[in-house]
Amino acid sequence: MRNVFLFIRRHFNFLFFLVLQIIALSFLYRYNKFHEAAFMNVSTELTGRINEKYNGIEYYFQLKKTNEALVKENTNLRQLLKDNYEAPDSLRRLIMDTIKVDSGRSILKYTFMEAKVVSSSTQLKQPNFLTIHRGFAQGVRPNMGVMGPQGIVGSVVNVSENFATVMSMLHPQFKVVVKLKNGGERGTIEWDGLSVLFVTLKDIPKSAKVAKGDTILTSQTSSLFPANLMVGTVYDIVPDNTSNFYTLKVRPATNFFNIEYAYVITNTQYDEQRRIEDSTRKKVQ
Amino acid sequence: MSELLKNTIRFILFILVQVFILFKMPPLHRFITPYLYYLYILWLPFSLSRAGLTLVGFIFGLCLDYFSKTPGLHAAACTLIAYVRPFVIGLLISQEGADKNYISPSIVSMGWAPYATYVLVLTLLHHTWLVLLEWMSFGSFLYFLGKVIASTAVSLLLVLLTELLFFRKQKFRTNTI
């Protein structure tokens, strides 16, 4: 026993170093389970506040670009107004619904809420996150979709009282089901970490007609996003003769370098969908 | 200014510079990530005990990790260089006894060549460990090698610039006091 204590005393520095190194590595590799619950909430709140202060300054330099993006989005929305559609056929007139009760409430599946982006990382080969200034108190929960003015951004992974961290499209674990606008074939968006300007679209069968510049939209099978949101455009078709599926290089519509505002998308039926899918999985097993 | 206060201010400044300037820059190349924050550990005073040094390294790395959302990654690398630092210093200035006469490692206290070696060895060690941990989760061997070399080169350039811009005056303390 005495020898053990002597050993510890003699090699105290080395053992101390080993212990700290093991703690650090366990943080790194057990990040999703223990760490998130124990530390990440407090630290997100703290770093979120500092990021917010910094963003207050940085925001002024981006005002012009932010404004342009919002104006563009406004124009797009304005084009969707019902008044813009006028049929030349006078036999069938378009009649506006004047009932004051919002009958759409009960079938409303997605709600949007705007959020200020207070920090955004764009590192190669590393998980990239955004921090938004909306948290648990405002109704943000993990696994909610996030979109920007130009297109989808990512999904919420962690929530504190007033802030939330969002795993961006440039994160190796982010996956979303999308479809081609032209044919409707579904595939999965992933990020290989090689460039912050491109993501990869896989699992599109070779029977689909794909050309450079084709639009890619979200699919209705994704439980995070409503259908037909902008994702990006096809930049290049990677030749691969061994597979029956295309590998497409996609340029995301969102510019992760200057994003200032985002919308958190709440799927009001997410829990219900999850429950039935999980119980099905259990039954099948 | 007392050493403790000076180092506390440095602690905050290095993290802010790394997080809000160097991490915000658009990436130059997929091999290059500019790191400067570990210079804080290189500048810590000689008088700090081995265990104290390791602990400061761990806490410093962890603070940065909370900003970059990679808990443990930088902490592991910082703990390693903080632990190895006394060995490297012992090898480089064993004859002159500068660790008694000066406060912290610098060009003045150690001389040009030993200080440059000291920075090079610890930078290489820090980057190798950091990129190795990154490589475990994804990447190839070429990526590992390229990133270590390219990032080390860029970091050394940054260290050189910092040393030139913020030249640290070091008073010679005689050991008779």
DSSP summary: helix tally of chain A: 4
Order of helices and strands of chain B: HHHHHHHH
Structural class of chain B: mainly alpha
What percentage of residues of chain B falls in helices of 4 or more residues?
55-70%
Average the pLDDT over all residues of chain A and give the rounded result. Answer: 82
The greatest interface between two protein chains, and residues involved on each side, is: A-B, 39 and 34 residues
Tell me the CATH superfamily of the largest domain in chain A. Answer: Rod shape-determining protein MreC, domain 1
How many whole angstroms does the radius of gyration of chain A measure?
Answer: 24 Å
Mean pLDDT across all residues of chain B, rounded? 86
Question: Which features would summarize this protein structure in a list?
Answer:
heterodimer; A: 285 residues; alpha+beta; Thrombin, subunit H; 2 domains; six-stranded antiparallel β-barrel; six-stranded antiparallel barrel; globular; B: 177 residues; mainly alpha; 8 helices
Report a brief summary of the structure.
The complex is a heterodimer of chains A (285) and B (177). Chain A is an alpha+beta fold and 285 residues long. Chain A contains four helices and twelve strands; from the N terminus they run αααββββββββββββα.
